[in-house]
Amino acid sequence: MSWTAIARREYAATSDSRAVTWLLRLLAGACLLSGYVYPMLGSEPITTKAFVGFDFLSDSVRYLLPLLGVFLGYGAIVTERASGELTLLLSLPYSRRDLVIGKLVGRSLVFATTLVASLAVAGALVVYPFGSLAPGWYLAFVVLTLLYGLLFTGIATAISMLTRSKHLATVGAFGVYGLFVVAWGALRTALEFGLETAGVIDGGLPDPILFLFGCNPATLYERILAGFFVDGGSGPYVGADAWYLSEWLALALFLAWVVVPITLGYLWFDNTDL
């Protein structure tokens, strides 16, 4: 399978990036520190399932992992396309599909290896000596978090396929991070405050508007954690009556975000001239 050669090359090349290395260290440090302090600060019972809802861990993953994914993905295609190296690479026995799969897999493995190792050690710190392990739930959390990183790597890689300009790819990929991860919650709060001040609503946003704000991938990740993993979770989506605000639909939308952007980006890239 020729994409594996590209994946190995991408893994080796991307691992040497100074920015990626520092982000990996921050992510691993946050996971390990969470595992160390959670047994001291968390409430009983101390379990790896409850650890998933520990604020420092969930907030660190929520902000750092998408940023890492964007760093890994935004230059995946456009850098070689702008320099002309892509034409040379595709003259070898690689298809564009091999190229996209190899780059996505190789670059995703960069964060996946560090994330799995650091969460494994963090889980051990939670369990030893007085905590308990919920292996199925913790494994599901690790898989979900890997998909969360893959989702943003895929979005950034898709943007990288849409343009010949590295400047536009950079603005687009980091703009998506700023909108979805940093600004989205503030936009929802501002809209809710504005509508309440104007007397349009009383006591929270209507369910259809809440659904639209809940389709953001970072919010979907939070909703899945709150709905499936955290006992007695809080937030506007927990315990909502509308079926379209359920955690099951949130999971389906989250999986769609993993697949659809990279697929659309590839279809565009496969039908355009270099």
Question: What keywords describe this structure?
Answer:
274 residues; mainly alpha; 12 helices; 0% strand
Fold topology:
Blueprint: H1 3-15, H2 18-41, H3 48-51, H4 55-73, H5 78-83, H6 85-90, H7 96-127, H8 135-162, H9 166-197, H10 207-213, H11 217-229, H12 247-270
Provide an overview of this structure.
Helix content is 76%, strand content 0%. With 274 residues, the chain is mainly alpha-helical. 38% of the residues are buried.
Unreliable stretches covering 5 or more consecutive residues: none
Radius of gyration: 20 Å
Q: Given the structure, what is the number of helices?
A: 12
User: How far apart, in Å, are the first and last alpha carbons?
Assistant: 24 Å
Percentage of β-strand residues: under 5%
Q: What average pLDDT do the residues reach? A: 92
Helix-strand topology string: HHHHHHHHHHHH
Largest sheet: none
Instruction: Tell the overall outline.
Output: globular
Helix percent band: over 70%
**Structural category:** mainly alpha
The count of β-strands is 0
